[in-house]
Amino acid sequence: MTVTDLRTITITLPDKIAEELEAGAKTSGRSLADFAGEKFALAYDAIPKSLPGEGAPNTTWVNGKPVYVRPDTPPAWLTQIEPENPPTDGTNGLHCIVGQWPGDETDEEIEAALERLS
């Protein structure tokens, strides 16, 4: 890689990274400035140029990299999914589970169990 139009900057690095750069420069027989500059340029080129919020509203970003792009419309097969056992009373069935607790524990027993776990 050939770098032209060079500019000098000063950055503070953790010791581990500085040691790795020094070792890499020594192994490759190059100057630390040359070796580190190339690594920086390569890393910079790898950064996506469209950053979060800039023209990518449906993109999920992790550590500055796009990891998932949600389609603008849901896939067609999603509209064809039907429940196996739909409620027969014309509702969505949510009322059958809201406010229900599957066990017979009291509120105090639940609070005590949660306290033991925390």
- What is the typical, i.e. mean, pLDDT? 76
The oligomeric state is single chain
Radius of gyration: 28 Å
Strand content is 5-15%
Shape: elongated
Biggest sheet, in brief?
2 strands, antiparallel
- N- to C-terminal separation? 54 Å
Structural class: mainly alpha
Low-confidence stretches: none
Count of beta strands: 2
Written overview of the protein:
Strands 1-2 form a two-stranded antiparallel ribbon. The chain has a domain at 1-81. Helices cover 34% and strands 8% of the residues. Helix 1 (15-28) crosses helix 2 (32-46). The chain is elongated and about 75 Å long. The protein is mainly α and 118 residues long. A hairpin with a 2-residue loop joins strand 1 (59-62) and strand 2. It has 3 helices and 2 strands, in the order H-H-E-E-H.
Primary descriptors:
118 residues, mainly alpha, two-stranded antiparallel ribbon, 3 helices, 8% strand
Question: Topology of this structure?
Answer:
Blueprint: H1 15-28, H2 32-46, E1 59-62, E2 65-69, H3 107-117
Antiparallel strand pairs: 1-2
What would a concise description of this structure say?
The chain is mainly alpha-helical and 118 residues long.
